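Subject: Sanity check before I submit

Could someone independently write out the structure tokens for this chain? I want to compare against mine line by line before I put it in a report. The sequence has 265 residues.
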Amino acid sequence: MEPLLEYDRVEISYNGKPAVQDISVTLSEGEILGIVGESGSGKSTLIKAAMGLLGPAGMVTRGDIWYQGKNLPDLKPAEIRKLCGPDFGMIFQSAGASFCPIRTVGAQLYESVREHEEMAKDEFVKRASDVFEKIGFQDPVRILKSFPFELSGGMQQRVGIASAMLLRPAILMADEPTSALDVHVQKQVVEEMLLLRKEFGVSIIIVTHNIGVVGAMADNVLVMEKGRAVEYGPTKKIIETPETDYTKTLMAAVPRLNRGGAPNE
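---
Independent answer below. Compare away.
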């Protein structure tokens, strides 16, 4: 089966200096891929490159990123923008920072959806409520009517995760979605992302420095160090029999989250 997304020997540079070098990795339909490494290893740069979010200083300087027959680095900015939302959903590290504090959550999400799809307000509320309920929100209409400051940090993050699915993207890009959360909320976030895959069949790339989160949810994992791939393969194999000292160090440095169980301290 053809991969849904494929990085083929990708090099990414900022101001002409390589930050990511010779990365080849694929994402299949329904797969969760974890990209793990310490800060500055280049893991967030990989997903930003696919979504055209490298900024004026960044550029894919070698290799290809293929999605549905399109080489993403070759697309014009307007073409990439059309893909962001309906094809690629984004979950940010701190969802609360992406909300305007003086407008309701529902008004902001409705405006975002309308950028890509004509939709009446009542239809939007029905769709948003359906998505929110599927991952366990008890009162989605109340959340839509709330201002961001009326929600806790953990709830803001969970709303950000649910809202990324409003346009039914094929791929969710999650950039450190649990790093600012306590362990209990981290567990909730992991379970909700797994529910999104179960309910919608979405593929997920999760970027994190926490290999425990990857171990709880990812099918395959790419371990990065200083812009290069250190290990890549099935998560279970890499966690149980890591080949490099770098991966062993990452595993020893953080707690793990078990599927369906309490976190190990």
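---
OP: Matches mine. For the report I'm noting this point. The two ends are 39 Å apart (CA to CA).
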